[in-house]
Design brief:
Layout (H helix, E strand, L loop, with lengths): L8 H10 L7 H13 L1 H25 L2 H4 L11
Helix pairs in contact: 1-3, 2-3
């Protein structure tokens, strides 16, 4: 990454992807945040990626849960008088 203050949208898109695999260095994180403050398009992409990450995390949890935990429990049959 270059030592310039402002990143362009292409560089920010790469960082949005990179931070899924590794933490950003402090300088990268500062440049990234500065760009997001000024660029609504990149902010939107970052928000969409965050939404997708959370949706996939929840989907993974739902798939790993036992079937019984996902289905509502029905009341036991009542004895008839």
């Amino acid at each position: 990454m270059s030592a310039k203050l402002m990143l362009d949208c292409r560089e920010v898109a790469r960082l949005i992807s990179d931070r899924q695999d590794r933490p950003l260095a402090p300088a990268e994180r500062a440049q990234f945040r500065l760009h997001l403050v000024m660029c609504r398009s990149c902010r939107t992409v970052d928000e969409q990626m965050a939404f997708l990450r959370e949706a996939m995390r929840r989907l993974g949890q739902a798939v790993l849960e036992p079937k019984e935990a996902r289905e509502p429990r029905s009341a036991p049959p009542r004895a008839q008088d």
